[in-house]
Amino acid sequence: PAADPYRRIVTVRSVGWLDSNNNGALDANESSMTVDVTANYELARSGIFDYTYFINNYGWMSGFNATNLLVNGDMRANGN
Questions:
Q1: Which residue segment(s) compose the domain that 8 sits in?
Q2: Are residues 49 and 39 in the same domain?
Q3: Each residue of 9-58: pLDDT tens digit?
Q4: pTM, rounded to two decimals
Q5: Based on the structure, what is the number of domains in the chain?
């Protein structure tokens, strides 16, 4: 879809045949099969961006007190 730059529809087509006379080409009397598979690929926003501030450690905040660190939203750390 042209309106969504983060979404693609991909179709993969595979064509096979039984080359009974070994000439490398599909002849009218040879059996063949075509398989189409269509997949929808879409990028979604990562849930990590649902936070105002993300700390890439255990979330220790040193050097701040209750009045000089303001976070207007959720805050998260990825420590255990």
A1: 1-43
A2: no
A3: 999 999 999 999 999 999 999 999 999 999 999 988 777 667 776 676 66
A4: 0.45
A5: 2
